[in-house]
TrEMBL record:
Domain Metalloenzyme residues, every copy: 3-388
Protein name: Phosphopentomutase
Cofactor binding remark: Binds 2 manganese ions.
Listed NCBIfam families: deoB (TIGR01696), PRK05362.1 (NF003766)
GO molecular function list: magnesium ion binding; manganese ion binding; phosphopentomutase activity
Chain residues that bind Mn(2+) 1: 10, 337-338
UniProt catalytic activity: alpha-D-ribose 1-phosphate = D-ribose 5-phosphate; 2-deoxy-alpha-D-ribose 1-phosphate = 2-deoxy-D-ribose 5-phosphate
Native species: Aureimonas flava
Length: 397
């Protein structure tokens, strides 16, 4: 029997989706724009990286062909693209669809007003958590709102609540002054109060530092997601007696359902180490599911082209370490959950197609074209693991 390793490069889109205009994202292309910027010398940063994007292993697998950028040497991997049928371009929607469960209902969103949160919601959270009040209460980039409101938050003891184009309520507070456990408890209170508004996630955003110039977010972020609306690939694997190892924030994204074990790491390179450890220990028929969050949260949302390029290069350099750990019959798939084009206006996700790159000792290199739903990825993994097929998507194997 074989193992499956599913890896999400968070936000690594490869070009705007057919319905991108509905999201205001026509023309977005995370990979294409980073690649073009690097080629033009616009992704150089002293001490970090320079010149054209160097990602030979991803290219060898067929990334350029998947993105429609090249028809050069025949790719060495199974390669293609996938489009999303879920209605949101958020992380849970993308991951759940990859795991065979598209999100066909509408999430709740907070309006682009200031304040953006319903006053009854704020009052309920303030009362139950015993807070002196809240700060923020608007659409914002997480790092910018901590710079703008962090000092006041420290002075007043008020946490910073904000949202984005996603169905999300984020709560930033100082990790030691406000307290990490207190922040988590506050998020659990908020989670209950936003259920009625159909909000996908509440996210704890602890930070450290003393002044606007020194504030930095820590690795203790925690997501409180609603559970997926149907059994996912993870539930199906677990029910069949397989081990499901979640690397990074996969556990949080699936509301800890369908998971045998969680492995964490602070930063993509630590996550890569955690992934390798999980692969080493996975047995026949098991699933390892990893998310690499820094592409999105450290570079994509921050519109940091050079940083995103360097992160891709660092990830690419480590792919051989994964390849040598794969055994006969194993399938590894690299994909993404949405785009976050660092050259695009704003700081939100972008509606894009995602790459699907499959490899392993017995995986025949071939094109799988453009799949009509991310669910084809989960169904292919299910087929590979010998699990019964689910109600959405079709295997490309
Ligand atoms: O700007 P920050 O706080 O990184 O927020 C980003 O991260 C959130 C969750 O991934 C998204 O909703 C997006 O807005
Ligand atoms: Mn994401
Ligand atoms: Mn994001």
């Amino acid at each position: 029997m074989a193992r499956a390793i599913l890896i999400v490069l968070d936000s690594f889109g490869i070009g705007h989706a057919p319905d991108a205009a509905d999201f205001g994202d026509s023309g977005a292309d995370t990979f294409g724009h980073i690649r073009a910027a690097a080629l033009a010398g616009r992704a150089d940063r002293a001490g970090l990286r320079k010149g054209p994007l160097a990602i030979p292993h991803l290219e060898r697998l067929g990334l350029l062909a998947a993105a429609g950028l090249d028809d050069g040497p025949a790719p060495a991997g199974l390669h293609g693209a996938a489009e999303e049928i879920s209605r949101g371009k958020d992380t849970p929607s993308g991951h759940w669809e990859i795991a065979g469960v598209p999100v066909r209902f509408d999430w709740g969103y907070f309006p682009h007003t200031v304040p953006c949160l319903p006053s009854a919601l704020v009052a309920a959270i303030v009362r139950e958590a015993g807070l002196p009040g809240i700060l923020g209460d608007r659409h914002a980039s997480g790092t910018e709102i901590i710079a703008a409101e962090g000092e006041r938050s420290l002075r007043t003891g008020m946490p910073i609540l904000y949202t984005s184009a996603d169905s999300v309520l984020q709560i930033a507070a100082h990790e030691t002054a406000f307290g990490l456990d207190r922040l988590y408890a506050l998020c659990e209170i908020a989670r209950r109060h936003v259920d009625a508004l159909n909000i996908g996630r509440v996210i704890a955003r602890p930070f450290l530092g003393e002044t606007a110039a020194t504030f930095r977010r820590t690795g203790n972020r925690r997501d409180y997601a609603v559970p997926p609306p149907e059994p996912t690939l993870l539930d199906r694997a677990l029910a069949a007696g397989r081990r499901v190892t979640a690397v990074g924030k996969i556990g949080d994204i699936f509301a800890h359902r369908g998971i045998s074990e969680v492995r964490k790491g602070n930063g993509n390179m630590a996550l890569f180490d955690a992934l390798l450890g999980a692969v080493d220990e996975a047995g026949d028929g098991d699933l390892v599911f990893a998310n690499f969050v820094d592409f999105d949260s450290v570079h994509g949302h921050r519109r940091d082209v050079a940083g995103y390029a360097a992160e891709l290069e660092a990830f690419d350099r480590r792919l051989p370490e994964l390849a040598v750990r794969l055994r006969d019959g194993d399938l590894a798939i690299l994909t993404a959950d949405h785009g976050c084009d660092p050259t695009f206006p704003g700081t939100d996700h972008t509606r894009e197609r995602v790459p699907v790159l499959g490899f392993g000792p017995g995986i025949r290199p071939r094109s799988i074209g453009t799949r009509p739903t991310f669910a084809d990825i989960g169904e292919s993994v299910a087929a590979h693991l010998g699990l019964p097929h689910g109600p959405h998507g079709a295997s490309f194997l």
